[in-house]
């Protein structure tokens, strides 16, 4: 082979290689390695701890014993979910903890991929990014965060429940797009007629029109009670059809559980539901809810009831009010995120692996930074010097356009860094052996860092007007001008 031939082969290979794809693949590899190192540095030994408790309780139940009287041999912890959740988990009852844990891990990673796809799709489309690559880059960044790595490591179901809730967010988006195109109401659509009259050809219209909105939230609320706050949100924002669907779904599957396991259901709703001490003391460091924060601040195993109820009501009102405002201004993702964060705060117990809605909060802050930067650059870029001089009362931003949105970008980076590092573990304390003030003010701040972050986000998370509306915008009609009377 001559030198010229070899040169021609090399040129053809270079031409065939997509350099951008190679760079992206290299960056993706770097992100996965960095994520793995972060888990090694800031994660803990998990060994499917919670999955072992689930399997022990399910086997105890199958053997004819009371599901909620099971206590794990070492920790003494038991099953705390509603009976419908136990029925759903029954197929894995006789698998080993390792096999069941890996099945849950793979299903949770798949759910996380779908959630990221749903959340990034509007943003990627707005900026002209490749959605597949955007999700691929986001996946390792999400896997190394505290809520995700703990959910996967413990064998928890939080990512699966988040997937159900986000499925309803997607349905509301599709319903809004269908309405904007002039589509009929869902009950008048072919999808509704399919359910009542048959006709498999209508599934496409049912899917594209978001006819299932509310089913995911209803199922999530029947498996774990915390997502029920999303039903309250749907009622507050007057999304009546989705709210009715969610309530009907939750009621239907809960009734099914009553039929299949009446004694277990009565035990749960009559006793277990109200006994929060089954999962441990409120002051336990991983409990980053408002109740946990107050218990640690008072250096007590339980939060003062009246103070907790008062602040919970205030934060609940603030969270739902801000979520309603975000919905009204066309940012349904921010509204859902505020509801999820509020639910974490007001719940008596919110372990760190429950705080999955911190991930979309980071996404919202980052997108808000980009939107503000682009909005600030637009007049300067398109108008030129002459155009800027003719703006009259309008003026350019005080900051340089490239720095507009910097505070939102800094907030996104800070929140992400906090949920990766999760600084509460080095300052973990257990009463009565060690006071929560043993490490001083800095220790108190670190031990309650995620709870304080929740409060800040519920009260200050921005929303992006018009980013993701879940309603049909009303057509704007110019006001009529009054005619001046002739003289």
Class by alpha and beta content: mainly alpha
Largest sheet: none
Low-confidence runs:
380-396
How far apart are the first and last residues' alpha carbons, in Å?
99 Å
Mean of the pLDDT scores? 83
Order of helices and strands: HHHHHHHHHHHHHHHHHHHHH
How much strand content do the residues show?
Answer: under 5%
Radius of gyration: 26 Å
What gross morphology would you assign? globular
Indicate the percent of residues in helices.
Answer: 55-70%
Separate helix tally: 21
Secondary structure tally: strands: 0
List the helices and strands and how they pair.
Blueprint: H1 3-16, H2 19-42, H3 49-62, H4 83-89, H5 97-127, H6 131-143, H7 146-154, H8 158-180, H9 190-197, H10 203-208, H11 215-223, H12 229-236, H13 240-260, H14 262-270, H15 290-297, H16 305-328, H17 332-346, H18 358-389, H19 406-421, H20 440-447, H21 449-460
Helix pairs in contact: 2-6, 5-6, 5-7, 5-8, 8-11, 11-13, 12-13, 13-14, 16-17, 17-18, 17-21, 18-19
Describe this structure in words.
With 487 residues, this protein is mainly alpha-helical. Helices cover 64% and strands 0% of the residues. It is built from 21 helices and no strands. α5 runs antiparallel to α7 (146-154), α8 (158-180) runs antiparallel to α11 (215-223) and α17 (332-346) crosses α21 (449-460). The longest helix has 32 residues, at 358-389. It is globular and about 75 Å long. Mean pLDDT is 83; it is low at 380-396.
Question: In summary, what is this structure?
Answer:
The protein is mainly alpha-helical. It is built from 21 helices and no strands.
List its traits.
0% strand, 21 helices, single chain, mainly alpha, 487 residues
